[in-house]
Design goal:
The structure is a homodimer of 218-residue chains.
Chain A (H helix, E strand, L loop, with lengths): L26 H4 L1 E5 L4 E3 L7 E7 L1 E7 L5 E8 L3 E2 L10 E4 L3 E7 L2 H6 L4 H21 L4 H16 L4 E3 L4 H8 L3 H14 L2 E4 L3 E4 L1 H7 L1
Antiparallel strand pairs in A: 1-8, 2-7, 3-6, 3-8, 4-5, 4-7, 9-11, 10-11
Helix pairs in contact in A: 4-7, 5-6
The structure holds a DNA duplex (30 and 30 nucleotides).
Chain lengths: 218, 218
DNA sequence: CGGACGTTTGATCCAGCTCAAACCCTGTGG
DNA sequence: CCACAGGGTTTGAGCTGGATCAAACGTCCG
């Protein structure tokens, strides 16, 4: 396998993950907006692809159902993210709205457009994202439950741009299926972080913390 | 993250993983051959990149050292495989020869050459390989030790093209660091498969088996 | 023959899974 | 305004797969 390749930050010529906020002026020209209710399916594994999505608001989970019935969440996407790229005609993951979500649907014929060369930049960006995913999976493999949760919180904090508080849109079950542990273990790990004094919980979904203290547990 | 993308088999326009055997006629024109002894370093994480490699004979392990000291092997490469592609100037993994190995070293300036468009096909191939790696890590995450070993054996069998016997070039320790378990657990899993009657061992490195029986354990 | 690896096997321990129950929050309807 | 239903979350008790530590066993080679 050749599964180790990397792209430096400066290679990211297109901004797949734009800062959240007002939609860009040309969004309307790119595709049409659609709304999805909580837990609504956006697409399912095995369906035919044909477009990509940009998150305008809300949150999306992308996942795969394993043979043993486990659901492995591969990614969460938040406002500004694009997702749903496939280089062939088939969906290899499923996607659902975590909360009520607005998406911009953009027509995109993977292989064809890429081969034309016009989408070289996106392709490079995709490689970068894949590498990040690979890195994450490689790292998590040997981490214990507490470290996994810390990793998750730091990732969410970084992506939401806030280093003191995060609003978790997803339930414990989703966090569990993202980190590869059970929801009980996630809950216990939250409790342990609270007991250690490195986070505070305001309800189950709002987390207050100090980035550096968290990072120490790594 | 956008880390879910796929390339169908028919997209593989270039054969990165050629059938082993006599070197191709134009190999000599592509680069120069080099030999590496057992466990010799080919490159190290953090070094600057500048070429890619094609395995002429032997076997290569590509890995990363995690902060906690664990070594996570990302890939094994065998005759015909190419590896060492980076899109920036830095090695993000380390590579070593598992056994005495001959490599063809090919000059390759990642970003530059790719941006020219000439390497679009390789790029697509890389995305495919990355997706495979992602899929593997996603799958292994929830498997137990026995299932992981079966996965490994089936993968090796498929890649070596032989469905009745495989010659494992790597020690138990390498298999362990590839599957994310300890070498003792790998050894015990081999013993269990033998007890189940789905494999036979001739020494530690030669495995006799029936593909279908193995696949049943999945 | 002896030393160095690599592999197997044994004994013990514990993190995380499983099953189960209690708890909490929010919306709904009497 | 309260009751209550249903989903999400927390907490508890017990079990177990794999890690860890340790020792014996093979095998190759100088």
């Amino acid at each position: 396998m050749l599964a180790h390749i990397s792209v430096s930050a400066k290679e990211s010529l297109l901004h797949f993950r734009c800062p959240p906020g007002k939609p860009e002026a040309n969004d309307a020209r790119m595709g049409r907006a659609r709304s999805f209710g909580r837990n609504a399916e956006i697409y399912g594994e095995g369906e035919s692809s044909g477009n990509v999505y940009k998150v305008l608001s809300g949150m999306v989970r992308v996942y795969k159902l394993l043979q043993d019935g486990h659901r492995q969440i591969s990614d969460f996407h938040m406002a500004g993210d694009m997702f749903g790229f496939e280089l062939d005609q088939e969906r290899h993951f499923s996607a659902e709205a975590v909360v009520p979500t607005k998406l911009l649907c953009i027509k995109w014929d993977g292989a064809g457009e890429i081969r034309s060369g016009a989408y070289l930049r996106q392709l490079l960006e995709l490689v970068k994202e894949l590498r990040q995913s690979q890195e994450r999976l490689l790292l998590l493999g040997r981490k214990n439950a507490l470290e996994r949760l810390v990793y998750f919180l730091l990732e969410m904090a970084q992506r939401s741009g806030n280093s003191r508080t995060i609003e978790l849109a997803m339930p414990r079950h989703d966090i569990a299926d993202y980190l590869g542990v059970t929801l009980e273990t996630v809950s216990r790990s939250f409790a342990e972080l609270k007991a250690l004094g490195v986070i505070k919980l305001d309800g189950a979904r709002r987390v207050l913390f100090d980035r550096n203290e968290l990072a120490e547990i790594q």
